[in-house]
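Exam prep: given the inputs below (a chain plus 6-O-phosphono-alpha-D-fructofuranose), describe the expected output before reading on.
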Amino acid sequence: MAASAKKTPSQNGTTAPASPISGNRIVTLDEFIIRSEKDFDYATGELTGLLRDIGVAAKIVNREVNKAGLVNIIGVADSGENQSGDMQQKLDVYANEKLIECLKNSGECCAVASEENDDYIQIPPVGSKKSHYIVMFDPLDGSSNIDVNVSVGTIFAIYRRKSDPSGPATKEDFLQAGVKQVAAGYVLYGTSTLLVYTTGRGVNGFTLDPSIGEFCLSHRNMRIPENGSTYSVNQGYYSKFDLEMRRYIDNCSDQNYGLRYIGSMVSDIHRILIQGGIFLYPSTRKYPKGKLRLLYECNPLSMIVEQAGGKAMNTQLKRILDVVPTELHQRCTIAIGSPAMVDELKAFIERYSALPL
Ligand code: P6P
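Solution:
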């Protein structure tokens, strides 16, 4: 379709996004966001402002993550435990504060929810501006890896608010199914710093170039491999998994799949997005409903993987993005990755599950 023709997300569905770039010239995140915005009839720059705020926060957090070993911000924060019962790392607290600060800038966000905060936080309007979005995030997922210099990540989800824009945000703004996300993404603070996001028209990745301080388009229109040869699960819980999960894991081993598990969900999912594979966090005795959080871990990563051609379900075979949340920090089980591998697991669950599905 001619670049000048405007498209609404429904027209785009999962078709490849309009390419706002050509050739190999450097395209910054800002430029990409602004040029992509032109393809949305309803976009009024609000979502653009939000995504740019998140890009700024990512650069600030990246600066501190990269020198975490040099300054006294490693180790447990004085503030104690977070929602997940993890001892808060000082960098967690720092990342949380910076994300909230940056999301206040554009005035497009009326409230945020974070793994680090018990309840959602109202964001005061900027002047008379009415804000139409809420943002949920895990500011630094996998933070227990910071002290051992393993990759960590930020995960974010953006929704349009349901409540009256002239009033405060409400709980219902946050308790929306993942299918209602208008954008989702992650920042991976690894060997390089990568920001990957989707607005429902494909997935694109941007690598931070420290020499110019810009995220530059490096992974255009990411597509997950249909199949893979690695599985990602905490094998240490094997004996505590349900029969159907143990049978599937045995099958992976019989097929000589490699086991790759970093213990940082963003890192494991990013690898799977690039190389293919499947990531599993089933129920365990310690986490009977699963450990990972639906709203700010599983939903955004599921939107990314689905937009790249993959699948994401819980171990009751329900599509993650269709789960209607009932509480902010709700946990869920998850199986996510290459569609052929998720389908194979589904067959094992249907065959071996003792419970009616
Ligand atoms: P386990 C990190 O704490 C995290 O939330 C995810 O990033 C990661 O995939 C998972 O928990 C690891 O959990 O129980 O295997 O240590």
